[in-house]
Specification:
With 512 residues, the chain is an alpha/beta fold. Among the domains are: 325-403, Roll (Luciferase, domain 3); 406-501, GMP Synthetase, Chain A, domain 3 (2-Layer Sandwich), CATH 3.30.300. 29% of the residues lie in helices and 24% in strands. The protein has 16 helices and 24 strands. The chain has helices at residues 13-20, 38-54, 71-83, 96-106, 118-125, 181-194, 212-217, 219-225, 237-246, 256-263, 287-295, 318-323, 370-376, 416-423, 460-470, 496-501; strands at residues 25-29, 35-37, 62-66, 86-89, 110-113, 135-138, 161-166, 176-180, 202-205, 228-231, 251-254, 277-280, 299-302, 314-315, 327-331, 336-340, 353-358, 383-391, 397-402, 407-409, 412-414, 429-439, 443-452, 479-483. Strands 14-15-19-18-17-16 form a six-stranded antiparallel sheet, with helices on one face. A four-stranded mixed sheet has the order 2-1-10-9, sandwiched between helices. Helix 4 crosses helix 5 (118-125). It is globular, with a radius of gyration of 23 Å. The termini are far apart. Residues 418-493 form the AMP-binding enzyme C-terminal domain.
Amino acid sequence: MSTFPQFPDDVDAVRRWARLAPSRVALVDDTHGARLTYAALDAASWAWAHVLRAAGVTTGDRVALLAGTRAECVALFYGCLRLGAVLVPLNWRLAPSELARVLADARPMVLVCDARHDTLAARALAVDGAPPRVATLRLDAADGVADAAPLPEPPSDAESATMLLYTSGSTGAPKGVILPRRQLLYNAVATVTGWRMTPDEVVPVSTPLFHTGGWHVFLTPVLHVGGTVVLFDGFEPARFLAGLAEHACTLAFAVPTQFTMLMAEPRWGEPLPALRRFVSGGAPCPPAVRAAIRAAGHGFQEGFGLTECGPNCFATNDETAEAHPGTVGWPIPFLSVRVVDEAGEDVPPGTPGELLLRGPQLFAGYFGAPERTAEALTADGWMRTGDLAVRDATGLTRICGRRKEMFISGGENVFPGEVEAALADCPGVAEVAVIGVPDDRWGEVGRAFVVARAGDPVDAARVVAFARGALAGYKVPKQVVLLDALPRLGSGKIDRRALAAMTEPATAGASA
């Protein structure tokens, strides 16, 4: 790994704001009713530090978390930070056997669990191969700790781990991504700077806390700047929209599927005077969705990032985002970007290539997997994202899709994201995903998986006919599969491995 500039040891934003403005509201738990000032969150964090210390947790130990999106989870994280312990948020959507494999890899000393997931935790720990002797604590374990005095804090440096996040497995078995202190700080500072945040921000978080989007798209940057985070324990469209108004939220993040759900709500389009803009991420946002958000009077921009870097890697403004739809902007502060060909050479503007990233927002490696870390990084410290991107002469960046998802049909490169964006505008199409499949004549052809809009049936012929009018012939899917829903990973991303594993399509489109 490259050596990055050192920074002050104190990256604990909660402690800083508890000292500067103790009565400012740090967290609002919309689902469970809690409301914590920075002083209260600071005290709750020290309470967790005492509970964990009493359980034998010391510097470098891992503390697993199996819980919904609760204020206690945030306090637990900052309690871990103060002990030098490493939080390991667990995906509660996993089956017990899957969860057991993650636990076996992470080897936590303690597992903190809420009441809702007690049974899942017990079943996972009972699986053969699960780590033995894991102490379990309830999520309310720190509630009874009164007047918890600050504890001596261990020395730390930029590379000290703060969190171990397991990826959702879109490219294979889940991998534990080590997030060091420098990543926590630099992502927060760069996000605040690039996205022009202020202490007056009120920002909702509905993304599960086993995902980097739950912690580091908004939560830790907003706490860094002294703003207020509104926690939603799950994404329920009607409640989320109501919460945006009730809490006077200023920024809001959602994935494209969630935006589609919001737009189906009766109160979509009602004024949200405090909201400056929506941010979309996790997948390319269809043009029709972007247009509908702007038509409702909201600012809008797309973001890009990954667990291993950022996760906020680019920034733009409303004017540029509107003038150049589908772009994610320019690199966020401290982050360097390259777009390269298969030989690792930089490509000229306008040419697709693999996106490489380097900067202090990078992860510290994959836990217990140095060979995987070496595969992900070049010798001089660039992260191979596996994503294809195009930059124009000004450096404005557009994400084309995953390099492994691109397929070659009749000698021409086809990017599924481009095809999906076009088909998203087809009448009757609610969601669409495209993969390449083998073909005797063309080498590979596109297979589109389509979810129809409720009350607006769509068939393969309509999809293919629309594609012919919107795309070059070699990009038009040769097969169309109608599904009730697209399979998804725990992160909300489309599970393309599951799509590829499906049998021959039930509905096929005519050759284009």
